[in-house]
Design goal:
2 domains; mainly alpha; 9 helices
Amino acid sequence: MMMPSAPRPSSSSSSTDLTRVVQWEDRTAWFLFAGALAMFGLSTWVIAATVPATTTALVLLIVFVLWIVFIADYLVRLSLAAGARREFVRTRAFDLVSLVLPFLRPYLILVYIWRLPAFRHGSAARQRARYLITMVIFSLLYVYTASWGVWLVERDAPHANITTFDDALFWGFTTISTVGYGDLVPVTPLGRILAVGLMMGGIAVIGVTSATLISALNDSIQRRVERDAR
């Protein structure tokens, strides 16, 4: 005897569930954006090895608590999604990935910039500003992440000259800006692979950011011309 299958949630029910998720995100966006900035700053402080020994445990505890807050936020939103959980997981996959992979956690800043109500529900001009700000910050975080990776694989290598996180950041920014002084270079195979990735990705990131900025300037000029013509 065939058992009746469970009824699928209606599209209107799924839409209502996702609306609840968006409302929650609107209410918590600024708080979580501040938390993402704090976690990024404190983590960098620890990575750069400039935290006083007496403070390290406290800083790590704060970072851990912030991480738990982000996990709790994800679980709350997942529960609010109810009948639209598959859609929620699909459209917010990066949230979950960034909570699992430490090197992606700095990019939580971008996630919450994108969800700030002032940008999310703003005018077309604010949407363009959101996109431009996102691209600029992504460029900086891209260099940060690549530099972090190079530092991790280079710091203990024989004859390495990128031995501190400060050195790695300096190398990263000189590399992506095509200045490349040559005084700091990766010596390990993996470090060199990451360097090539930074160079190739940097060309794309700078190109897209420049194109976005030029487009925003052109739109601004066009609107001014239209106003003057009235």
